[in-house]
C-alpha cells in the first residue's frame, strides 16, 4: 500500500496506486498523476496573517506562499465564498495584498484550508 497526501486538504490516505481522477476520501479532490500543475514553486511558510473582508477581520495562518498565491489555514468558520476578494496582511513579512479566494474546504469541526490568488504577483 502506498501513502498518498491529498494536495488539496493535506490528509493522507492509503491506496494500492493513486489513479488519475480518483477522489480524495476526505475532500473529494481529484488526484492528478501528471506532473505538478502549479505555475510557480511554493515555499513552506508558517506565519500568522489576517484576512480583511469589508470590516471583518479573519485570523489565519499561512501554509505555503508563491509569487502568485498563498495556501492558508483558518480556525474559525469563515463566511467566505470562492471568487470573493479580500485584503491579506502578513505583518511579519510586511506583506499586504489584495487576493481572491480560489478554494476553501473543511478540515474538521474547527479547521478550514484554502487557497488565495494574489491580484498582483509578489517578488519570488
* Topology as a string of helices (H) and strands (E): EEEEEEEEE
- Return Rg in Å: 15 Å
Number of helices: 0
Indicate the multimeric state: single chain
Strand content: over 45%
Instruction: Give the CA-CA distance, first to last residue.
Output: 37 Å
> Which whole number gives the mean pLDDT?
77
The total strand number stands at 9
What is the helix content? under 10%
Structure in words:
By secondary structure, the protein is mostly beta strands. The protein is built from no helices and nine strands. The chain has strands at residues 2-5, 12-15, 43-44, 48-53, 56-65, 69-74, 85-90, 95-106, 112-118. The strands form two sheets. A six-stranded antiparallel barrel has the order 4-5-6-9-8-7. A two-stranded antiparallel ribbon has the order 1-2. A hairpin with a 2-residue loop joins strand 4 and strand 5. It is globular and about 40 Å long. The N and C termini lie far apart (37 Å).
Quick summary:
The chain has 124 residues and is mostly beta strands.
Write the layout of secondary structure elements.
Elements: E1 2-5, E2 12-15, E3 43-44, E4 48-53, E5 56-65, E6 69-74, E7 85-90, E8 95-106, E9 112-118
Antiparallel strand pairs: 1-2, 3-5, 4-5, 4-7, 5-6, 6-9, 7-8, 8-9
Label this structure with key terms:
mainly beta; six-stranded antiparallel β-barrel
